[in-house]
Amino acid sequence: MRFALLLIALTANAVAAVPPALTAALQAFRSDPPKGWSHTQTTVATGESTVERHDATKIEFERWSLLQKNGRTPTATELHDYADARSRRSRTGTAPKLVEQLRLETIEIVAETPERATYRCRLRPGEAGDKTAEFLRATLVLHKPTGTIASVELASAEAFAPTFGVKIDELHTLMTYSLPAGDTPSLPQRVLTRVRGTAFWIKSLDAEMTVTFSDFARAGRK
């Protein structure tokens, strides 16, 4: 009983140690564009590229449109496949929220200046069967004057094997965000993802992907 009470007390102290400014910033943080904002999303990965537009003024199942594929106007078949894939994706529900995966009881200060503070912590699984989170570390950069998250980095601490026959030498994702200005909130700028690894000691799993956000416009504003 005493051990249980001691464990509860230690956990409470660890959580309470999270800086209030970081707690407030995480409560307002969104890893994706905020609701009510239209934007263009450009994705480049494995030698292919797509340019999509999200129109926040339209109903849910009509908001996304494919503007370009591999630098050209998409064909009718590609437009049909895109709409079908988007429809299926919408029906699967929402992805786990990054903030909910942060194990804030493990938070530590990495660096601090008058303008920015850098924190690092461990992650908890985002869903059942997630065997990758335990090998990752999250690094958060807080912009103090605006109280917003300027960047989030998820990176493997060392090589790991999430499942039999698969070895990941490096897993790295960096998400950057603009600083709020006037009535414009913090908005996502870019997501860079890099994987280095092998499957069954033969097949390469090396891959890179860049997602860039641009042309933001608040819905309803001319």
Written overview of the protein:
The model is unreliable at 1-16 (pLDDT under 50). The protein folds into 2 domains: 2-26 and 96-218, no CATH class; 37-91, no CATH class. Strands 1, 2, 3, 4, 5, 6, 7, 8, 9, 10, 11 and 12 form a 12-stranded antiparallel β-sheet that branches. The chain is an alpha+beta fold and 222 residues long. It has helices at residues 2-16, 20-28, 76-91, 98-101, and strands at 37-45, 48-54, 64-69, 102-112, 116-123, 136-143, 148-156, 160-163, 166-177, 188-199, 203-204, 207-218. It has 4 helices and 12 strands; from the N terminus they run ααβββααβββββββββ.
Order of helices and strands, N to C? HHEEEHHEEEEEEEEE
What kind of sheet is the major sheet? 12 strands, antiparallel
Summing up helix and strand content along with how strands pair, one would put the structural category as alpha+beta
Characterize the overall form: globular
Unreliable stretches (pLDDT < 50, length at least 5) are 1-16
Mean pLDDT: 89
Based on CA atoms alone, the radius of gyration comes out at 20 Å
In percent terms, what proportion of residues is strand? Answer: over 45%
